[in-house]
C-alpha cells in the first residue's frame, strides 16, 4: 500500500488482491481447524485443572476470614481501589497535560513488556500497569487466605498464578503492540501464518495444544544432533545399548554406563560436539556405554519398574561386563533414571552382587517427602485422572507430560513461544535444546502409576517401604562410593531434596556438588563455556542450609571435578576398546533406532 493509499483510505488493487487471498486462506484454515477439533483425542477431565471444590474451599475460607476480621478485607480492598484510582488519575493527567504520553511508570520490570510502547504509549501503558495492579491484588488475596489446608492453599496459589499469567495483555492480539505492528507491516500475513502454525500444532498432537518450541525441520538425529560415533551392541524390548568409539589410544579399565531418563531421549547428553558430555567423557579416556530406552506403546501397558530394572539396568550392566571383560562398572543415573539406579543398587546389594563399583546421580530424587512445584500435580484428583488416562490408553502419553512440565514455566515455555508462533506468525527457532525438549516419550501405564503413587505420593523408597522383585528396598543399602550432582535452580529435582536423599544413603564415601543453573543447563555445562560455577562441601552432616553456608564456590564447570573423582575409581589404563565383540556384533550405528521412534498412544 502506498502512502497516498494509506492516508486517503483508498486501497490499491494489489492490496485488495492480497486481502482476498488471505480471506480465502482463512476459510481453508477454518475448515482444517474444525476437522482437527472434531477428531481431537480425549483425556480425563481431571488433567485439565483442579476440582472445582478447590475454588469453593478458597472462597469459603476467604469469606469466613472476612466475617471474623472485616478490617483486613476492607484494608485489602481499599488498597486495591486506591492504587487503581491513582493510576487512572495519573493516566488522565498525563494525557490531558502532556498529550500522547504515559504517566511515570514505577512498576516492576517484566521482560514480557519489552516493547517501548508499553512504557511510552498511554493506551498500552495503562493496560500494563492495571494488569500489574490486578495481578498483585489477586496474588495477595490468595496469600492471605487463612483456615485452609496448606497443601490446598499451595495448589490454589499455583492455579492463581496460572490465571494471572494467562491474562497478561501480551497474550491477546488487541493488547500486544508487537503483534499489531507486525500485522500492519505484513498486511495481515503474520496473522494468517500464525493461524496456520496453530492448526499444524493441533494436528500434530491430535487436537491437544502443545506449542512447538523448535523448528523440527532444522534437526536430523544422527546427522546434525546426537552425532558422537558409536555402535548399538545390544538390544532388547526395553533398550538399546550404545558403545561409543574411543578417541584415545588407551582407556581406563573400568567401563562407564549412563542411564538417562526415559521421559525424554538420551541425546540431551550429546546435542552437539561443543556441549556433548558423551564426547567429553570419551575424550577423557573412558569406555562409555549409554542406554537408549524404547518409546513404549500400548503393548507395554503392564511394564513396570521391575522390567526397567531387570531388563534395563541389570541386563545392561551384565552385557557391559561381558563386552569389556571387567567384573565391575561405574554407573550414572540422570533424573528418574537416578532414582531407579538407587533402587537397582539396593536390589544388587541384597543379592550380594558387587557389579557396580561407584554410582553418580545427576539431579536425582530419592526422598519425595517435599513435593515442591509438582505438588499441584500430585493431589489425588490429578493422579486419579492420570490413572484413568493410562487405563484407557495403556500409556501416559508424552503430550500430557510435556504440557505439565511446560506449565511449571508457562511464560517461557507456553505463552512466549505461542505469541511468536501464533500471533507473530514466526517459525520456531532452530534451537537444539528446545528440539530435544519437544521430543518426548510415553510412559507405560504400570510404571507411571508406580512412580506417581509409590514414589511421589507415598515416598515409599525413603521410608523403606518400596517392594520390587521380591526385595524391600532401602537407601541404606547404597554403601558404594557415591557422587551426586544437583542444580541450584532445578524446579524438577530441587537440590535441597536431592541432598536430603543422599544423606540417607549408606555410603561412607559421599560427594555432593551443587552446580549453578537448572535441571538441564546445570548438567549440560561444558568447561569450554566457562558459564556456570559450582559449590562443594565435604560436610553432609547438617541440613541443606548448613551445607550451603559452609560450601566453597568454584568458577567453571563441575565436569573436571567429577572426572577427577571418577578417575580414581576407574582402574589402570588399557588399550582402547572398539564397540562390540564376537558375541555382541554391531547392530547399527549410534544413535540407534529406538531414539527416532515417535510416541504412539
Can you walk through the features of this model?
The protein is α/β, with parallel strands linked by helices and 601 residues long. Among the domains are: 47-169, no CATH class; 230-372 and 460-596, Alpha/Beta hydrolase fold, catalytic domain (Rossmann fold). The protein is built from 20 helices and 17 strands. It has helices spanning 3-8, 13-38, 53-68, 70-98, 117-120, 122-143, 150-166, 177-185, 189-204, 277-283, 305-324, 336-351, 380-393, 398-407, 410-423, 432-437, 445-457, 495-503, 544-549, 559-567; strands at 230-235, 239-244, 250-252, 256-259, 288-293, 329-334, 356-362, 395-396, 443-444, 467-468, 471-472, 482-487, 510-515, 534-536, 552-554, 573-575, 588-589. Strands 15-14-13-12-7-6-4-5-2-1-17 form an 11-stranded mixed beta sheet, with helices on both faces. β12 (482-487), α18 and β13 form a beta-alpha-beta unit. The longest helix is centred in the N-terminal third of the chain and has 29 residues, at 70-98. The two termini are 49 Å apart.
What does this entry show, briefly?
The protein has 601 residues and is an alpha/beta fold.
Amino acid at each position: 500500500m502506498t502512502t497516498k493509499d494509506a492516508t486517503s483510505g483508498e486501497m490499491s488493487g494489489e492490496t485488495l488482491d492480497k486481502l482476498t487471498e488471505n480471506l480465502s486462506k482463512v476459510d481453508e484454515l477454518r475448515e482444517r481447524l474444525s476437522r482437527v477439533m472434531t477428531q481431537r483425542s480425549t483425556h480425563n477431565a481431571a488433567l485439565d485443572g483442579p476440582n472445582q471444590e478447590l475454588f469453593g474451599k478458597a472462597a469459603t475460607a476467604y469469606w469466613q476470614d472476612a466475617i471474623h476480621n472485616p478490617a483486613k478485607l476492607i484494608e485489602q480492598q481499599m488498597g486495591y481501589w486506591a492504587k487503581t484510582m491513582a493510576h487512572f488519575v495519573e493516566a488522565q493527567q498525563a494525557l490531558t497535560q502532556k498529550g500522547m504520553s504515559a504517566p511515570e511508570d514505577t512498576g516492576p520490570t517484566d521482560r514480557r513488556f519489552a516493547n517501548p510502547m508499553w512504557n511510552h504509549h498511554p493506551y498500552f501503558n495503562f493496560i500494563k500497569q492495571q494488569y500489574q495492579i490486578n495481578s498483585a491484588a489477586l496474588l495477595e488475596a490468595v496469600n492471605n487466605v487463612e483456615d485452609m489446608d496448606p497443601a490446598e492453599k499451595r495448589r490454589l496459589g499455583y492455579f492463581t498464578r496460572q490465571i494471572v499469567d494467562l491474562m497478561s495483555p501480551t497474550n491477546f492480539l488487541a493488547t500486544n503492540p508487537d503483534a499489531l505492528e507486525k500485522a500492519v507491516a505484513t498486511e495481515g500475513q503474520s496473522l494468517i501464518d500464525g493461524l496456520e502454525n496453530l492448526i499444524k500444532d493441533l494436528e500434530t498432537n491430535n487436537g491437544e495444544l502443545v506449542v512447538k518450541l523448535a523448528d523440527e525441520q532444522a534437526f536430523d538425529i544422527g546427522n546434525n544432533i546426537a552425532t558422537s560415533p558409536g555402535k548399538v551392541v545390544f538390544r532388547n524390548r526395553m533398550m538399546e545399548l550404545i558403545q561409543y568409539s574411543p578417541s584415545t589410544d588407551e582407556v581406563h579399565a573400568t567401563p562407564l554406563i549412563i542411564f538417562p531418563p526415559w521421559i525424554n531421549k538420551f541425546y540431551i547428553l550429546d546435542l552437539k560436539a561443543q556441549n556433548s558430555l558423551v564426547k567429553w567423557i570419551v575424550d577423557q579416556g573412558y569406555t562409555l556405554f549409554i542406554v537408549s530406552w524404547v518409546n513404549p506403546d500400548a503393548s507395554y501397558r503392564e511394564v513396570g519398574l521391575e522390567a526397567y530394572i531387570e531388563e534395563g539396568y541389570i541386563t545392561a550392566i551384565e552385557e557391559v561386563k561381558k563386552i569389556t571383560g571387567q567384573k565391575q562398572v561405574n554407573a550414572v543415573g540422570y533424573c528418574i533414571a537416578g532414582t531407579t539406579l538407587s533402587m537397582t543398587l539396593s536390589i544388587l546389594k541384597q543379592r550380594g552382587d558387587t557389579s557396580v563399583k561407584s554410582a553418580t546421580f545427576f539431579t536425582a530424587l530419592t526422598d519425595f517427602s517435599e513435593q515442591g512445584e509438582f505438588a499441584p500435580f500430585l493431589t489425588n484428583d490429578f493422579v486419579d485422572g492420570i490413572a484413568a488416562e493410562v487405563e484407557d490408553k495403556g500409556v501416559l502419553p508424552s503430550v500430557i507430560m510435556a504440557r505439565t512440565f511446560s506449565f511449571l514455566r508457562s511464560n517461557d515455555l507456553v505463552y512466549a513461544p505461542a505469541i511468536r508462533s501464533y500471533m507473530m506468525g514466526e517459525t520456531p527457532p532452530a534451537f537444539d535444546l528446545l528440539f530435544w525438549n519437544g521430543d518426548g516419550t510415553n510412559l507405560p501405564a504400570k510404571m507411571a502409576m508406580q512412580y506417581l503413587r509409590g514414589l511421589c505420593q507415598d515416598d515409599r523408597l525413603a521410608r523403606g517401604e518400596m517392594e520390587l522383585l521380591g526385595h524391600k528396598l532401602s537407601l541404606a543399602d547404597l554403601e558404594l562410593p557415591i557422587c551426586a550432582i544437583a542444580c541450584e535452580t532445578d524446579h524438577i529435582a530441587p537440590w535441597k531434596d536431592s541432598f536430603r536423599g543422599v544423606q540417607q544413603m549408606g555410603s561412607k564415601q559421599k560427594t555432593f556438588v551443587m552446580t549453578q543453573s537448572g535441571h538441564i543447563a546445570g548438567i549440560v555445562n561444558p568447561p569450554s563455556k566457562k558459564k556456570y560455577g559450582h559449590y562443594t562441601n565435604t560436610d553432609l552432616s547438617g541440613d541443606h542450609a548448613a551445607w550451603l553456608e559452609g560450601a566453597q564456590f568454584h568458577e567453571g564447570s563441575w565436569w573436571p571435578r567429577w572426572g577427577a573423582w571418577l578417575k580414581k575409581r576407574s582402574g589402570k589404563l588399557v588399550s582402547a576398546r572398539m564397540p562390540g565383540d564376537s558375541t555382541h556384533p554391531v547392530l547399527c550405528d549410534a544413535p540407534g533406532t529406538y531414539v527416532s521412534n515417535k510416541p504412539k498412544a
